[in-house]
Specification:
- Helices cover about 50% and strands about 15% of the residues.
- The chain is built from 15 helices and eleven strands.
- Strands 4, 5, 6, 7, 8, 9, 10 and 11 form an eight-stranded antiparallel sheet that branches. A three-stranded antiparallel sheet has the order 1-2-3, with no helix packed on it.
- Strand 5 and strand 6 form a beta hairpin.
- Helix 1 packs parallel to helix 13 and helix 9 crosses helix 11.
- The chain is flat and about 85 Å long.
């Protein structure tokens, strides 16, 4: 009887003594296999103030697990083979992200593989006990910049509305507006994305540590998302008002940022102070966690065996990527020659001294065409063997960069045009120069014969083309014309593209076959 009483703890201890080292080996091996993706996350943390918090997310995750280690130690590890299904899906998502050069997809997939390795080796019962620490690890992924255009638009809307309610006349074009005391514009730093991501990360952790009921936690997480959003609108309005009332002596330059962070700091401190008034100090009793049915299959497998299966599944996808990238076509340096376009005369003169901000293309072409007083410009940026340094669809590839001293984008939208009896949407934009001249711009993508104006669809077409062995040849096509010209800029663009598109498509097709 005494022997049986003493053997139970030894069995339980031996379970952890085997399972925990197996898990550590698996996690380290996954990081080694996907080291380029892991290092890309670290590089973003190091260079971006927005995502610098990523450095502390893994240590916080480990600390959150450490603080409940005694409760976890009461559980018995039971490896679950069902977690391998999630690992397969995450690995495939990583492969698609790499083929489409969408770093955030690869990074989320890597984080998911690290998270799913826990139930695979230790079981879902153990994983459920550390659900929040594992979920908190996703804050390490540099994610959220996709919302920049919307946040900038909302900031401009709220600032202009506040100024008009204050009795100040405002003339607005896009993200630029003019008031009697000067010109202002909403740039990336004004979007508030830094405030929102920082507040959401800290607010989620605060909610977990301060409250025990799910309702209060969710409410505070929602507050930590909404409050910085509204606070940023107020901040932007206050900065413009301070600049206006001080004759542009205050809230410009460096103190513009200082005032913004001081205001944000005060708002966040107040938010946490108010949230702490409803804290729940009494720890809720841990619920009984019976073995999950998901662990009924593979529950008798040893942690070492499951660790080997996890590593096999994890190793498949880098090998698949290597196989796909073994046979890539030779790089190109120039496009095939564009045939004459009926009724339009080509010229090497740069129209309006403007060039789209699409960099690191394999080959480019920019030509001006004229016909009976109408003038149109054509730009083609061709991409082959794309990677994270040279890819077509990227946040830095835009019509006009925010730092451009001459040109600014003042409006945009979508327009339907017909190619080969197929109607597709193209992006439209209006650009304004420092001397008030204006360009109308149409833009779309060609990906191995597929036409789209969507960044998302362009990435999907690229991934599918590469995974089926067709390569990743892609091109951005941009046509543009002065707004004020005989017949109007839109009419000139439409007349030109209907005649020019067969020749443009021929250039792209012949270049792909090189």
């Amino acid at each position: 009887m005494n022997e049986r009483t003493q053997s139970a703890p030894e069995t339980e201890s031996s379970g952890w003594s085997v399972a925990l080292p197996a898990l550590v080996v698996v996690l380290l091996a996954i990081l080694v296999l996907y080291r380029e993706t892991a290092m890309s996350m670290v590089e973003i943390w190091a260079r971006s103030d927005t995502f610098m918090h990523g450095f502390i997310v893994p240590p916080i995750t480990l600390w959150l697990i450490w603080r409940i280690r005694k409760r976890i130690a009461l559980l018995t590890p039971h490896p679950s083979i069902w977690a391998l299904l999630g690992l397969v899906a995450a690995g495939f998502a990583w492969l698609l992200g790499e083929l489409a050069t969408v770093g955030v997809v690869s990074q989320f997939a890597l984080t998911t593989m690290l998270v799913l390795a826990v139930p695979a080796v230790l079981g879902f019962q153990v994983a459920r006990s550390i659900t929040f620490p594992l979920a908190f690890l996703y804050f390490a992924v540099p994610f959220g910049e996709f919302a920049l255009p919307h946040l900038m638009e909302w900031t401009a809307n709220s600032t202009v509305l506040g100024l008009r309610l204050s009795g100040i006349p405002v003339y607005r074009e896009g993200l630029h507006f003019v008031i009697p005391s000067g010109n202002w514009s909403v740039v990336e730093a004004c979007s508030g994305v830094r405030y929102i991501i920082a507040s959401l990360t800290v607010g989620t952790l605060f909610a977990y540590l301060t409250y025990h009921s799910l309702k209060r936690r969710l409410i505070f997480v929602g507050v930590s998302l909404v409050v910085p959003l509204i606070a940023n609108w107020v901040r932007a309005y206050m900065i413009v008002m301070i600049g206006h009332l001080s004759g542009n002596k205050l809230a410009v330059g460096v103190d513009h940022l200082i005032y913004g962070w001081l205001f944000f700091g005060v708002v966040i401190i107040a938010m946490f102070w108010i949230g702490a008034r409803w804290r729940e100090d009494d720890l809720a009793p841990a619920p009984d966690m019976p073995n999950s049915s998901l662990e009924s299959v593979g529950a008798n497998s040893s942690p070492q065996f499951m660790a080997i299966l996890v590593l096999v599944v994890a190793a498949i996808w880098p090998l698949a990527q290597w196989q796909i990238e073994r046979n890539v076509p030779p790089q190109i340096s120039q496009l095939e020659e564009l045939a004459p376009i009926a009724g339009w005369t080509a010229s090497q003169d740069t129209l309006a001294d403007w060039r789209p901000s699409f960099g690191n293309a394999s080959a480019t072409m920019q030509t001006t065409f004229g016909s009976e007083g109408q003038v149109v410009g054509l730009f083609i940026g061709y991409y082959r063997n794309q990677d994270y340094r040279s890819k077509m669809v990227s946040s830095v590839n835009v019509l006009v960069s925010s730092s451009d001293p001459v040109w600014a984008r003042v409006s945009g939208g979508l327009r339907q045009i017909t190619f080969n009896q197929q109607s597709i949407p193209v992006r439209t934009a209006e650009l304004r120069s420092a001397d008030s001249s204006r360009l109308l711009v149409w833009q779309w993508y060609w990906v191995n014969g597929h036409l789209t104006a969507s960044d998302f669809k362009a990435k999907v077409y690229t991934a599918l083309s590469r995974i089926t062995g067709q390569g990743d040849d892609s091109a951005v096509i941009i046509v543009y014309a002065p707004k004020e010209q005989p017949g109007g800029g839109d009419a000139a663009l439409e007349a030109f593209i209907h005649l020019a598109w067969p020749e443009i498509e021929s250039v792209l097709r012949r270049t792909r076959e090189k």
